[in-house]
Design goal:
- By secondary structure, the chain is α+β, with helices and mostly antiparallel strands.
- The chain is built from three helices and nine strands.
- The protein has helices at residues 23-31, 44-51, 60-63, and strands at 3-9, 12-19, 33-39, 68-70, 77-79, 82-96, 99-111, 118-121, 126-129.
- It has a five-stranded antiparallel beta sheet, with helices on one face. Strands 4-5 form a two-stranded antiparallel sheet.
- Strand 1 and strand 2 (12-19) form a beta hairpin.
- The radius of gyration is 14 Å and the shape is globular.
- The mean pLDDT is 88.
Length: 133
């Protein structure tokens, strides 16, 4: 996924944009469900590998040996090393240039303050935790 943003605090809403060909985007539009996560720092290599391939023909979880855990109230699993997870329902999809913006209402926020989350740097050239200071 390329771009993620908070859109509203009441109700809590997020938006994320995927390319028009994105397997993830197609799945969200078909099911109406999504969990947007901030992965933990142990997943840096897996995040870069997953971003460079499509999940349409490859099981990215198995290929990158990502340990997954269940999320209560959802049939979507998330990586065990997750800083933040936003369990959401798709409200609307809008074409924006070469991407599709998915506007979602968040039903639940799950977080683990003990973990360092990964963020994209240098135009998605690398992923690393934010440095405090």
């Amino acid at each position: 996924m390329c771009f993620v943003s908070y859109l509203s605090s009441n109700p809590p809403m997020i938006g994320f944009a995927t390319s028009k060909q994105s397997h993830t985007g197609r799945q969200v539009r078909e099911t109406g469900k999504v969990i947007v996560t901030v992965p933990g720092e142990s997943l840096a290599q897996a995040v870069m590998a997953c971003g460079a391939s499509t999940g349409a023909k490859t099981d990215k979880v198995a290929a990158n040996h990502i340990e997954m855990v269940a999320v209560e109230g959802s049939d979507i699993q998330i990586p065990a090393d997750t800083k933040l997870a936003m369990v959401a329902t798709l409200q609307q999809s809008v074409e924006v240039g070469d991407h599709i913006l998915h506007i979602c209402q968040v039903g639940k926020f799950l977080g683990d303050e003990s973990k360092k989350g990964l963020y994209a740097w240098n135009g998605f050239g690398k992923v690393a935790p934010a440095v405090e200071g």
